[in-house]
């Protein structure tokens, strides 16, 4: 019996060894095929097994400058291998235009799976038919007539922000403005997406607010670990269980909001109350959640999980991106007093000396120079530094082949600062956006472009105008001479040391 068990174990080990050999052989052949077909793109130096990991960088800060260095060649692109993963990073205008304009190359790469536990396969992370159907039903939520309903939310939350900054923000040593902006943006998007406020500025619902921040931080850390980024190995780490605990908490909060919203709509239906009018006859603001609750795909209503995916997606995309852009914008305005003065002069023409006057949609539309300023802010500091797409079948491009299974990383931060497309690219010059004659439209893509462009870009622009204008009407912005932002790159840009400026009450 003992000998029999030994023989059985021997054969089992042989089978395991054979499976491992086959697995690695298939992977190697796949990499070799892609490497051969992409030989027209300059390749980064690589080592066995780990590939170009050291060339890319070992953390989220190094990767920013390394991508610039690696794409500094005539092709403005680089072929990378890390382990058995192959991809291209590019800041070439024509290749970016080709990929982003395609109606076929719309699938996100596998990297976005790190968000699946939280966001599922919602609008940002899904692809193919599901993405097209979701985009179709969600697009009406960003119609102008819907967006103007949120102007009051921008204004009221901005007013609360000014009150807090007036009490806490005028310290001689300066403040981290990023934390204040993030709390305000969370309140705005929660009201817009879910119809309720998480009251982040009032330190309420801290479990949800802190959960969002901690989860994003953990995902950032995971993205730069060869061990954790592997979906098969990640469950063996403590971070996996840490993230799952946070996700459960976030989903519990969102589920409660959805259930309460459904119950409220049912009660109004039973009482024959108009659902778009409140108790005093005033037209009720419709949250994105209301649209989802009344939507269907192929004749079937969205499931609770479907709705939660999109609400959570809005909560993530709708606060993290604008928080970064607004904060970096205030940092740039503090460093460029002439631009700040010109912007404030425009605001004085619109509002006069009334600092408390509510902001209307007409006011926002009249902020022409501020719009140029914001466009320049998001050129220098795009909230999303790069976009990844997966090539789902061999695709011809300029006589070459983009092989199936390749990730194409379009380096927005890189092309937005490329001297080939932008004169004096490191300078903060809002007036450059007055010139619309350039044919290189895909050299400025802070909101992406093509079929998968940012669906919320109008919402974001209105929110940025509202909050930046309110701060400039109440404070003079001054730089902190000792501060320089330390950027970190993930699905969205971050700063590892906040965004420090000084505020002087006007």
TrEMBL record:
SUPFAM superfamilies: Cytochrome P450. The keyword Metal-binding applies. Pfam families: p450. This is Cytochrome P450 4d2-like. Its cofactor is heme. Heme binds at residue 454. One of its GO terms (molecular function) is iron ion binding. InterPro entries: Cyt_P450, Cyt_P450_CS, Cyt_P450_E_grp-I, Cyt_P450_sf, Cytochrome_P450_Monoox.
């Amino acid at each position: 019996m003992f000998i029999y068990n030994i023989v059985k174990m021997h054969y089992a080990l042989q089978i395991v060894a054979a499976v491992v050999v086959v697995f690695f052989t298939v992977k190697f052949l796949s990499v070799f095929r892609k490497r051969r077909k992409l030989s027209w793109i300059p390749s980064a130096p690589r080592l066995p097994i780990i590939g170009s990991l050291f060339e890319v960088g070992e953390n989220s800060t190094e990767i920013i400058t390394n991508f610039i260095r690696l794409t500094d060649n005539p092709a403005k692109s680089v072929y990378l291998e890390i382990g058995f993963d192959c991809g291209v990073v590019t800041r070439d205008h024509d290749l970016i235009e080709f990929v982003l304009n395609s109606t076929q190359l719309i699938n996100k790469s596998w990297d976005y799976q790190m968000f699946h536990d939280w966001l599922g396969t919602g609008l940002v992370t899904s692809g193919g038919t599901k993405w097209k159907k979701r985009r179709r039903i969600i697009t009406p939520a960003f119609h102008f007539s819907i967006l103007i309903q949120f102007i009051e939310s921008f204004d009221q939350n901005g007013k609360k922000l000014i009150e807090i900054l007036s009490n806490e923000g005028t310290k001689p040593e300066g403040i981290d403005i990023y934390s204040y902006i993030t709390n305000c943006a969370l309140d705005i998007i929660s009201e817009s997406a879910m119809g309720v406020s998480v009251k982040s500025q009032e330190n309420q619902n801290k479990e949800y607010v802190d959960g969002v921040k901690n989860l994003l931080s953990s995902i950032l850390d995971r993205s730069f670990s060869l061990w954790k980024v592997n979906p098969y190995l990640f469950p063996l780490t403590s971070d996996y269980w840490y993230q799952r605990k946070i996700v459960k908490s976030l989903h519990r909060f969102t589920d409660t909001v959805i259930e309460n919203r459904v119950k409220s709509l049912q009660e109004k239906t039973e009482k024959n109350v108009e659902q778009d009018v409140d108790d005093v006859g005033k037209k009720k603001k419709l949250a994105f959640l209301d649209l989802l609750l009344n939507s269907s795909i192929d004749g079937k209503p969205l499931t609770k999980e479907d709705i939660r995916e999109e609400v959570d997606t809005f909560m993530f995309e709708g606060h993290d991106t604008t928080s970064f852009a607004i904060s970096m914008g205030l940092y740039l305005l503090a460093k460029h007093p002439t631009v700040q003065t010109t912007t404030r002069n425009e605001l004085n023409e619109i509002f006069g000396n009334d600092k408390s006057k509510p902001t209307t949609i007409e006011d926002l539309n009249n902020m022409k120079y501020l719009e140029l300023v914001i466009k320049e802010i998001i050129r220098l500091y795009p909230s999303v530094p790069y976009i990844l797409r997966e090539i789902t079948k061999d695709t011809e491009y300029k006589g070459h082949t983009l092989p199936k299974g390749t990730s194409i990383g379009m380096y927005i931060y890189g092309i937005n600062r490329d001297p080939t497309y932008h004169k004096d690219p490191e300078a903060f010059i809002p007036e450059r956006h007055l010139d619309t004659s350039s044919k290189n439209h895909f050299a400025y893509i802070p909101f992406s472009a093509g079929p998968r462009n940012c669906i919320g870009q109008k919402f974001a622009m209105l929110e940025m105008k509202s909050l930046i204008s309110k701060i400039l009407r109440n404070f003079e912005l001054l730089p902190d001479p000792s501060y320089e932002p330390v950027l970190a790159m993930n699905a969205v840009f971050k700063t590892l040391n906040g965004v420090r400026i000084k505020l002087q009450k006007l």
